[in-house]
Write a structure and sequence with these properties.
The chain is of the alpha+beta class. It has four helices and eight strands. Strands 1, 2, 3, 4, 5, 6, 7 and 8 form an eight-stranded mixed β-sheet that branches. Helix 3 packs antiparallel against helix 4. The longest helix is centred in the last third of the chain and has 15 residues. It starts with a strand and ends with a helix.
């Protein structure tokens, strides 16, 4: 349920090369997210071990007994009433890493049904904004940039994509409310 750029290997050699780059944490991954609340700082780093949740096996958690180290760098790009647009850069790539880190930091992704982003709608008083968030039908997370070394040519390649219409509509609405338009 995350929009944006992804990479697919077309053969075994490409798969091995890309897997090695992921394992060595050399692939550039930048995400944009709309989160509930407003972090106190403008930027930061979240580091914790992530593994299977001790009770809910469908979720990942920083409370796992045997987790793997995960690092997410974040920056608040724009703060709105009730929501913040964040830029996230992954140093590692664990399953649900962004969702777990932001939820455990007290700022779940808007619209995230698994990690509590749906329950925070009670803190939003604007019915139109609530409808836009519910209309997402997914978490407000977008893989904006992906960079890696091409498996065959060894050339660095970087791909970037704009926000999808559903997230862009929410931001446009929030901007109109801030500007009073």
């Amino acid at each position: 349920d995350t929009s944006g750029v992804l990479v697919v290997a077309k053969n075994d050699q490409a798969h091995r090369s890309l897997s090695d780059q992921f394992k060595e944490h050399t692939i550039k991954r930048v995400y944009l997210a709309l989160v509930f609340g407003s972090p106190k700082a403008d930027k930061g780093r979240i580091e914790s071990a992530i593994g299977r949740h001790p009770v809910d096996r469908k979720r990942m958690s920083g409370l796992a007994r045997r987790g793997k180290q995960a690092v997410t760098h974040w920056q608040a790009i724009r703060r709105y009433p009730g929501l913040t647009l964040m830029r996230l850069k992954l140093e590692t790539g664990r399953t649900h890493q962004i969702r777990v880190h932001l939820t455990e930091a007290g700022h779940p992704l808007a619209g995230d049904p698994v990690y509590g982003g749906g329950g925070r709608l009670t803190n939003i008083r604007d019915p139109q904004l609530i409808a836009l968030i519910k209309g997402l039908g997914r978490q407000a997370l977008h893989a904006k940039t992906l960079g890696f070394i091409h498996p065959r040519t060894n050339e660095y390649m970087e791909f970037d994509t704009e926000l999808p219409a559903d997230m862009a509509r929410i931001i446009e609405y929030l901007e109109s409310q801030v500007l009073g338009v």
